[in-house]
Design goal:
This protein has 15 helices and 5 strands. The chain is of the alpha/beta class. The longest helix has 32 residues.
Length: 426
């Protein structure tokens, strides 16, 4: 049995061990070890977009943890006295857990659009709180089920008010369950991608969304370094909580707790301030790694604006968010077929070509394309080609020649401007 337990734990934690090990690998591929390096940690610390997405993830996770744990604790205590209505409340509580995340994300986008709430950090936090409350309530309720109600009654018999009895007797007994609920909510929030991809707006790109958007151009091993630091910080906080539960002195748990909090706070301390006032903001929605950070810095310094760069992983995700009608993007960079859809739906603003003197320097082969005649709504930004390799074995007999063939097609991305909004900068 001990050997079986070791195998089970190895199966559970082996992926984490591999991630930590390859965060120090000098090679980009995880298929082979090429030597020890700290370069990926340096790259992660220097990557402003990754740092910004990590700050967003931590801010959302911390806010979600605080709100959901407080509401979940109150709900768990209330359900102890629900009586006959408990079955109905249990079913209502289970809905966010059972509903698929895609359905939940789409419904939240429609809800936010209906009430006129623009997508951003607030909508991400509200969405995360919405699906996290159920998890927090279930965990705290399981702890509350094992409490002896006579302890609280005895405290009130001795003269304590119900509120004081709760804080002096019930809350300390619930503390392990509340801590477990908080840790679970934090993990769920910081890891969520599906719901966040629906409800994130300007300046609200989280780390999971950033990682998924990098798939198109290749995920950097710097992600391993960031993940290792997150794993280290949460492990230190867990150790501190465990030490306190075991009755250790405060100074024993203080050092790992402070170190864990310091690691989590590092992205906030390392953030650079805005280069321009809030009334000079340009909100851009684009594929990952399509604009170099140095280009953005030069643009901000030259024109005195602050650029909010948000990333998407697919054209379909971009279309779904733009079509919701409650996002504040000024410039979007979709593929050519997506531009056709947006033009047909009247969601793009015509360009002022007189303000684009360098457009004349673009090769005419990339102008006046079929998806936007006269470049009324878009200018070419990126042009590439993709190939599909087809194995001819087992296909129709009309395929001749070598065993493998290729089918190539072109792919274009252009930048377009969104319609003017009352609050949009001019």
């Amino acid at each position: 049995m001990p050997a079986l337990a070791v195998l089970v734990y190895l199966f559970l934690y082996a992926p984490l061990l591999v991630l930590v090990a390859f965060s120090f690998n000098s090679g980009r591929l995880a298929s082979s070890w090429e030597g020890f390096t700290l370069a990926w940690y340096a790259q992660a610390l220097a990557d402003e977009r990754m740092q910004a997405s990590l700050r967003n993830s931590l801010a959302v996770a911390l806010a979600t943890t605080a709100i959901s744990t407080a509401i979940g604790t109150a709900a768990a205590m209330g359900l102890r006295r629900a009586g006959r209505a408990r079955a109905g409340w249990d079913a209502f509580l289970a809905l966010p857990i059972l509903v698929p995340e895609v359905v939940l994300g789409a419904s939240l986008v429609l809800l936010f659009a209906a009430i006129g709430l623009r997508l951003g950090m607030a909508t991400v936090i509200l969405a995360h709180v919405g699906f996290s409350i159920s998890y927090a309530t279930v965990v705290v309720r399981a702890r509350a089920a094992g409490l002896d109600p006579t302890l609280e009654e005895a405290a009130m018999d001795l003269g304590a008010s119900p509120l004081r009895a709760f804080f002096a007797v019930t809350l300390p007994a619930l503390a392990p369950g509340i801590l477990a609920a908080a840790l679970l909510v934090f993990a769920l929030s910081i890891d969520d991608y599906v719901v966040t991809s629906f409800v994130a707006g300007v300046g609200a790109t989280t780390l999971p969304v950033h990682i998924y958007s990098m798939v198109k151009s290749g995920v950097s091993p710097a992600i391993n370094a960031v993940s290792t630091l997150l794993l280290l910080s949460t492990s230190l906080l867990l150790f501190a909580a465990w030490a306190l539960e075991q009755g250790a002195r405060m100074r024993v748990a203080l050092a790992p707790a402070v170190l864990g909090i310091a690691i989590l706070a590092a992205p906030f301390a390392a953030s650079r301030g805005p280069v321009a006032s809030a009334d000079r903001v340009l909100n851009v929605y684009i594929w990952s790694n399509y604009i170099a950070p140095e280009t953005l810095r030069q643009l901000e310094q030259r024109h005195g604006v602050r650029v909010n760069l948000d990333l998407y992983d697919t054209n379909e995700a971009m279309l779904a968010k733009v079509q919701s009608g409650n996002v504040d993007y000024d410039v979007i960079c979709p593929s050519s077929y997506a531009i056709q859809v947006l033009i047909a739906q009247g969601m793009l603003r015509p360009l002022d070509l007189s303000a684009l003197p360098h457009l004349a320097n673009v090769d005419p082969a990339f102008l006046d394309r079929a998806y936007d005649r006269g470049n009324r709504y878009s200018v070419p930004y990126f042009w590439g080609a993709r190939a599909l390799r087809i194995a001819a074995v087992g296909l129709a007999p009309w395929i001749r020649g070598p065993r493998c063939g290729t089918r190539a097609s072109s792919a274009a991305s252009s930048c377009s401007t969104m319609p003017a909004r009352p609050s949009a900068p001019r």
